[in-house]
Amino acid sequence: MDPASAALSYSTHDDLPGLPVEVVIPNGLIRRDEGLGWVVGLGDAFPSGDSETDQRRSTVELLEDGRPLGPPHALHSRIRAHGRGLYSHWDRWLYFSTADNSDPRRNGRRYSLRGKPGVRPEAGALFAASPAAREEAEPPLFPRLSRLAPHLSAEAGDTAGPDAPFDPAGGDAGRRIRLLEAKVEYLLDELYAAKSQLRLLTPQSPEIDAVRRHQIASFDYQWKHLPYHDSFLSNPAWAETAAAEVEQRSGLPRGWFAGKRILDCGCGPGRFTWTFASLGAEVVAFDTSDAGLEAARQACRGMDGVTIERRNILDPLPYGGGFDLVWSYGVVHITGDTLGALRNIAGQVRPGGLLYFMVYGEPQRGSVDEFAYHHEVRTIRQALSGQSFERKAEILRSLQGERWAQCWFDAIGSEINDLYTEEELRRLLSQLGFAGIRRTMPQENSLNMVAARPADGGG
């Protein structure tokens, strides 16, 4: 008997037939699914669970150190996104999360399944084949990464995230095929985008300027005709949470902002300009969109210490530095010259000051949803590329409703929309002379980066 099978234990309670059977899940058979989710393959001897035709069929209860988790029958997307003990016994697979979202392979807890009386599985057949048996039948695609992952997990402890080396072995074959299809589409999209941008960025080609002008016009349209966003001042409730959002993204307490000089680069309709001013900061803000600037001026009307100007983030800036915080939310990655934009605004940070920016991140390697999202964005962008702004807005309202139309118009409106990894951004910031580089808001796929210019002015 292999070690994994030997580790199985279960009780039939022959002397107490009214009690349910309990089956211990071997630690070695728990595999990462996506996000906060984990998956265990159950053998053919285990009763089949929920299905498309009967989504409440399973009566299996999942226990953590003897305490029931749940609720059961959870959507797999919710398990992955929220965790907190949600689980699903689907077919002959268990998709689950832990009570505190820790790693079940390392938190020292005992996980078991409890079903109705009469379940008498054989120990050796209860779970799908052990990892060793699976590798013999289906060699891993990346054998060295398979052997590397446990070492990295052991070193990282409970801070290990979903971006560990991706091992495609194991799990639901159907889901793996869907992941593969989404990845292929994404890679094709990236290939097409790379070739397109290479052609646009050749020195002889003036088209890149035309693309930038079109993007400015697109932003102008959305700020004027699609102003609503849950996290904008067009939603009155957001104003009450604005200070808390700035705290989370910057990693700074709200009391820090009083009396500080802040440069808001690409302010749009001015939600963060307004927030900084509300917290007592002196703010200079700029953007290229006339409609965005008008909305920002309206939002900040009557506020002291606010200057709002029309400028391009790629052009030389006349401010001479001296800002305590230079802020740029969702701008530098749509310029076609991210490093140039960062270099331009980074020069405005005083020694000892901070730089914050947000850009879009590459999809997490094991996330079907994120690969699929980017494919949908690019496909819709291409499908609507010949349409007027009015027609695009009409179609997006039909697809997503009024509440989310602005979000999707924003997503598809920028033909230049570079995606980054955290590692690449850290390298860029180091090259620009910054230290204390950190990422905030790790729950977002977007990359929120904060870095400090050394107090001695180095770099």
Question: Care to describe what's here?
Answer:
By secondary structure, the protein is of the alpha+beta class. The chain folds into two domains: 3-158, no CATH class; 206-362 and 419-452, Vaccinia Virus protein VP39 (Rossmann fold, 3-Layer(aba) Sandwich). The protein is 37% helix and 17% strand. The protein contains 13 helices and 16 strands. The protein has helices spanning 3-6, 76-82, 131-137, 143-156, 173-200, 207-225, 236-250, 271-278, 290-299, 338-346, 368-383, 389-413, 422-431, and strands at residues 10-11, 21-24, 31-32, 38-41, 61-64, 67-68, 87-90, 93-96, 111-115, 261-265, 282-287, 306-310, 323-329, 349-359, 435-440, 447-452. It has a seven-stranded mixed beta sheet, with helices on both faces. A five-stranded antiparallel beta sheet has the order 1-2-9-5-6, with no helix packed on it. Helix 9 links the parallel strand 11 and strand 12. Helix 11 packs antiparallel against helix 12. The chain is globular, with a radius of gyration of 26 Å. The N and C termini lie far apart (61 Å).
